[in-house]
Amino acid sequence: MAIFLTKESKVLVQGMTGGEGMKHTRRMLAAGTDVVGGVNPRKAGRTVDFDDRAVPVFGSVREAMAATGADVTVVFVPPAFAKAAVIEAADAGIGLAVVITEGIPVHDSVAFHAYAATKGTRVIGPNCPGLITPGQSNAGIIPADITKPGRIGLVSKSGTLTYQLMYELRDIGFSTCVGIGGDPVVGTTHIDCLAAFQDDPDTELVVLIGEIGGDAEERAAAYVRDHVTKPVVAYIAGFTAPEGRTMSHAGAIVSGSAGTAQAKKEALEAAGVRVGGTPTETARLVLTRLESERVAAQG
Q1: Closest CA to 126 of 149, 97, 164, 99
Q2: Can you spell out the DSSP letters for 171-225?
Q3: How far apart (Å, rounded) are the C-alpha atoms in residues 270 and 256?
Q4: pLDDT of 101 strictly over 90
Q5: How far apart are CA 174 and CA 153, in angstroms?
Q6: Residue in 90, 99, 75 with CA at minimum distance from that of residue 120
Q7: What is the mean pLDDT of residues 16-34?
Q8: Each residue of 163-199: pLDDT tens digit?
Q9: Where are the strands (E) in the chain, listed by range?
Q10: Burial level of 295, CB count in 10 A (0-12/13-18/19+)?
């Protein structure tokens, strides 16, 4: 019941000894995440106590992976150092890099995404809340106590809307929730997550959350139409946004009909995706669709 992250994942935290890294490492550990080490060249050889667990600090990702078998890293380093941190992790052969840091220059993101792809490292983010497989592992800053394990997969550009849908559908629960981030350039896309959820036998329905600006949702709609057999329900943030302005953390620019919430809604609905007008309506659509699937299965 998971994509990308399971209870077997061994997690590093680059930037663990900083304020945000410390706070969220503690929360990840409390959620059951197997955090096996931090990375900080200036504090290598130390350990950091988190309640009942002491986590060692290593001088490099490569050293940490050799000592712990880590296969995931969560990046909390400042924007100026994020590119180097991701490249270091990719060079070490890490399988998954979750980049929480916001404010990274776009040219840096382009560079480290391209580099990571050549090394076989999946990047989630940047400027994202990370991902959680409830009851198994949590890599990032998503609250672990607002939902439970279940059969819905979620992929979202928005951290806040990720949390809201997780809470509204808490009685059903989630297989994995992935916050891909809303920057102009991200690593893992809606399509990547749709493909993974399609292949996950324990995900029965996918919730897709998008935003105004760009064409990621239109491309996701085309993918759903051609490749996804599971039901998909969506919400697009920004129906009331004015045209011709840069808005939100995504830097979304709406010009004419291009990039509007309405255009995205129409593309998704043409692919058979139900689109809610509000997050609460979206949650209701999910419940209705799951019930109809249950009835159909009973004949």
Answers
A1: 99
A2: TT-EEEEEE---SSS-SS-HHHHHHHHHH-TT--EEEEEEESSSSHHHHHHHHHH
A3: 20
A4: yes
A5: 6
A6: 90
A7: 97
A8: 999 999 999 999 999 999 999 899 999 999 999 999 9
A9: 10-14, 34-39, 47-50, 53-58, 72-75, 96-99, 122-124, 130-133, 137-140, 149-156, 174-179, 205-211, 232-237, 246-247, 252-253, 274-276
A10: exposed
Helix (H) or strand (E) holding 293: helix 279-297
Q: Token pair for residue 161?
A: 């809307």
Vertex 191, ends 5 and 127: CA angle to 5°? 65
Percent of the chain with pLDDT over 70: 93
CB atoms within 10 A of CB 157: 31
Looking at this protein, which amino acid is placed at residue 148? K
Residues in CB range of 43: below 8 A, 6 or more apart: 17, 57
Contact indicator for 61, 14 with CB cutoff of 8 Å: yes
What is each CA distance from 21 to 13, 24, 61, 85, 245, in whole angstroms? Answer: 7, 5, 16, 14, 34
Q: CA nearest 233: which of 288, 178, 176?
A: 288
Q: How far apart are CA 227 and CA 98, in angstroms?
A: 26
Tokens of residue 210, six digits: 């998008």
Contact yes or no for 116/126 (Cβ under 8 A): no
Please state whether the predicted TM-score (pTM) of the whole model is above 0.90. yes
Give the range among 105-109, 181-185, 187-191, 255-259 with minimum mean pLDDT.
Answer: 255-259
Q: Are 236 and 212 in contact (CB under 8 A)?
A: yes
Region for residue 35 given its phi and psi (left: phi exceeds 0; alpha: psi -120 to 50; beta: otherwise): beta
Nearest to 186 by CA among 141, 251, 238, 253: 251
Residue 266 has pLDDT above 50, yes or no: yes
Q: Mean per-residue pLDDT for 231-235? A: 98
User: Average pLDDT in the 40-66 region?
Assistant: 96
113 carries an active-site annotation: no
Which member of 24, 107, 227, 249 is catalytic? 249
